[in-house]
Amino acid sequence: MQANRGKASAAAAAGSAAQPAPPPVRKGVFISLYREFPDITLPVRDFKDYAIARLKVLKDIERIYSLDATDLDASDDADMSNYGQMVRQREDKVMKSLYEHGLAVEDPNGPLSTERAKECDEHSHFTLRLAFCESSEKQNWFVSQEVHMLKAKLGSSSAVTANFLLREGIRYHSMEWNDIPDGLRLDIYDVSPGKKDQRFYQVPWEAAASLVARRKVVLRRGVAFVAEEDLKTIIANRYRQFLLAQLKCLQNSRHIVEVHNDPRFGSFVKNLKNIYLGPDPSAFSPEEQHVERLTPHNIDKVVPRSFPPCMRRLMEGLRSERHLKHWGRLQIWLFLKGAGMSMEEELSYFKQNMTLKATAFDKEHAYHIKHIYGKVGHMKSKPPYGCAKLMSGDAPPNPGPGDYHGCPFKHFDPGPLSQLMRRYNVPDGSTKKILDLVKGHHYQLGCVEYFRATHPDSAADGVGNHPNAFYTESCKYWGAKSGDGKVKKEEGGPADMDVDQEGASSSSAPAAAAAAASAAPAGGDTH
Amino acid sequence: MDESAESRKRTHDEANAKQEKPNGANLRPAAAAAAAAAPSGGKEFDLDLLRIYYALLFPSEDIIKWLCCRHDPPDVRRVTTGEKIDPHFLAKREFSFTKYTDSGDEIYIRWQCYRKLESFRNALKFHNPVKIDIGAIYNREVDRKDSATGSFEPQQKELVFDIDMTDYDDVRSCCREANICLKCWNFMTVAVKVLDRLLRDDFDFHNLLFVYSGRRGIHCWVCDERARTMPRESRDAVPDYISIITGTDKMAKRVNFYKRDPPPIAKVALQVLEDDRWGWRKLMQQQKWFDKGSTHIDKLLQYLPTELHKELQRWITEDKKYSRFTSVELWQFLRDTVDKWGKVPRNEALKRQCLSAMSEVKVAYAFPRLDINVSKGFNHLLKAPFCVHPKTGRVCVPIDPEKAHLFDPTAVPTLRSLVDEVDSGESDAKMGPSKTSLDPYVDFFRTQFLSPLLKDTLETRMKIARKKSELTGDLSY
């Protein structure tokens, strides 16, 4: 990704100098793209406390956004005001978490000094970079929480955002609403009627990729016309790309080994990353939860009873067509694996239940099934898809005609969804609740409601984030009903945050470690 | 050095070939199947013919020049411009082959790479692949994929699009699945024209190569330097932007403008559909969607606002004059009705709603349907132009978007016809492909695509270099 490509940048540098730039800032909140490493020395104790504080905030952010991971698609709906409100609510929650854990100061007269909050925010960011650079999965997790955090910090004031851009040296040519040529203005109005009368910025379309993907901006010869209120998205895109590039550099850097071997905080840093993921998908495994595992023998009984609607539909698709398309196969295979089917059972089950000739099956699908069990190729067992992934629209993509994969709550119109619910014997009252939830984009809550409707008097613990969690919870429920005694109490809360195993020792070394973090060459930056 | 690299690679290939082989007992005799599928009479596809094709007709040098993006290998003649050349560039590009073994099994070999044009030619000779796929450019040579420390990751790749006729099955009345005819090919004409305009006008890409996939679809390669070097986020945004048709068949409407004017991207398509040579009118005539009795009429009704919905239903059921009607007549009725309403000022809003709904229908039925997974990310390989499709024997030839409406997939040169031309023409093998019906296609590739591309790539690089030196320290894009 090379810099200086835009047509706008050079011209804008001159143009923007003329604009008066009163610096509206958010007091007590440190907003940064973390391009430079803070050169300070601090005690190991603080080094660790800061890191843990930030990790807690990131975990909070994950929770705040996981209830409904579909904020992007939601904006297609006509109900924009509600959507805006939802965004603001979430950002407020993130801010609250930042205040609570000392990464920002809410009350300037309170006990926490702004300097200390800034130090905490800045340092912890670089420490966590060290902890999360290891694999692309961890990098992605870290980056998406960080991006949410940045957006929350920028808040809803476009003045703060515009000022932040200026401070970061990012300059785009801009125009007043009334100066936009007529034809273009009409197109802009068609794309985003709610955004007129704002200043519009001419941004190279690549920088506005996420807006382009949703067709929320007008493109002309490679230039995107971005409303002031959307500048935040531009910053978020840049931050995401920049941070990912930095993490990749760090991942390949020799220094990371030195950090992990440091006697004072090496294992601390190494352990940090292990507590981020929350419940491991394997935690839903029947073995772990002491429920009966899924086999080809009990599957016909279990599908209508305990499969979440997404998987039940796939099984029905398999029955009726004796075939499933690529993403459908992947979704169901992974799920069945998570539900305890062995590789051999899965192979023979699908061989029997697909129209393909046995030889063709072996040629086309057997390898794939073995692959997800980690028996060939990469030799790593692949975790089943969670709800967020199924709804993301990005691998697995949103279903098209003839597809059975995805999430019915998200991907069905109300009509077909209520038909489905009726077919699955959901009482009308519950169906109505489900439809209301879905209308408000609470697809996962819709699934929880489905669980409650089909499992009377159940608390639906842990349901709504992962199809396999739905499955084991359902098995537990029916196990308890039949009283076969196989069900034991669920154990283990969220991972223990206290990873501080080594005694605190002296001073400036953490700074050195974090310096290694910043030593990642700036090649990934957009210099 | 190149010798040893070549031999090292060869063993690497063989190891790979072994690895990729599914377990021995269950192999499909693919070559036999392909031969059987060919039309009776002279087989359109044959491995011996293919060998001749690669030796005499396949434009290897042009393909390699294209894929090198000016970082030409030593045995390709180039014009020196003083630019910095990466001598390992070609070796960083992944190629893969589908080939038939001597026993007739189909195998797939990935992770091939070449350091010279000559070694690419030799590989074609050695493997005689039925399909050549082109992948990404990686951060180091592909044959050193596992041999060095540090991650092996794709860095660049052309932005590609794949449009397959099977995705139109729910709106195709003439053929199904793998079959195509000139009628349904019109969908592809529209797709090429729309895609061409969007990529040029909206994204400012200029070096586009449209290719017939040899059977039932088209590929589009966007080769601008900017497109090739895009990071993942921007790369994925393009197919997302373009795929305006969403949802499953569980959705009543697969396109929704929310009663407003069509968005700019749809306006482009609607403009393309205005042309009667391939546009909406022609499509309706060919596919007869809204002829009396067609099931598509119900789908159409679901798009229309209540007032127009009722009016149309009345027209269909009550008006005896139209006991039989064609799609064009039905559409004309809708337009007349809306025009009539529009004359009354207070109906302005209703008119807009109706026009919006009618645009939705046009877009839902005729807008290009992309297989977006092919376009997203760096991982997907795509068949090289000028390959021969083993099922049809047709060569994957480039399509000029300006003349896409004149393209006839059934008239494309086939492997058999080309070799026949060679046989009946000059016996001197060294004459190369200069006297066959493949000529115009190779010429188009060379003069209309490759040479502007190389020129543009140079200009882009010089521009970037200039800007860099002018504005060091400027962080903006």
TrEMBL record, chain A:
Which cofactors does this gene product need?
Answer: [4Fe-4S] cluster
Compositionally skewed regions (Basic and acidic residues) per UniProt: 483-492
Under what name is this protein listed?
Answer: DNA primase large subunit C-terminal domain-containing protein
UniProt region (Disordered), positions on chain = 1-23, 483-527
Residues annotated as domain DNA primase large subunit C-terminal: 300-471
* Listed Pfam families: DNA_primase_lrg (PF04104), DNA_primase_lrg_N (PF26466)
Family per record: Belongs to the eukaryotic-type primase large subunit family.
**Organism, as annotated:** Vitrella brassicaformis (strain CCMP3155)
Please give the Gene Ontology molecular function terms for this protein. Answer: 4 iron, 4 sulfur cluster binding; DNA binding; metal ion binding
Q: Quote a single Gene Ontology cellular component term.
A: alpha DNA polymerase:primase complex
Q: Give the source's domain of life in one word.
A: Eukaryota
The entry's keywords: 4Fe-4S, DNA replication, DNA-binding, Iron, Iron-sulfur, Metal-binding, Primosome
Query: Some GO term, biological process aspect, for this entry: which one?
Result: DNA replication initiation
Q: In which residue ranges is the amino acid composition biased (Low complexity)?
A: 8-19, 504-527
From TrEMBL, chain B:
Matches recorded under InterPro entries: DNA_primase_S (IPR002755), DNA_primase_ssu_euk/arc (IPR014052)
Query: Source species, please?
Result: Vitrella brassicaformis (strain CCMP3155)
The record's keywords, sorted A to Z, are: DNA replication, DNA-directed RNA polymerase, Metal-binding, Nucleotidyltransferase, Primosome, Transcription, Transferase, Zinc
Protein name according to UniProt: DNA primase
Keyword Cytoplasm in the entry? The reply is no
Q: Which family does this protein fall into? A: Belongs to the eukaryotic-type primase small subunit family.
Q: What is its EC number?
A: 2.7.7.-
User: Bias category Basic and acidic residues: which stretches?
Assistant: 1-21
Annotated GO CC locations: alpha DNA polymerase:primase complex
| GO MF annotations in UniProt | DNA-directed RNA polymerase activity; metal ion binding
This protein's source sits in the domain of life called Eukaryota
Q: Which residues form the signal peptide?
A: none
**What is any one GO biological process for this UniProt entry?**
DNA replication, synthesis of primer
Where is the segment annotated Disordered? 1-28
Identify the Pfam families for this entry.
DNA_primase_S
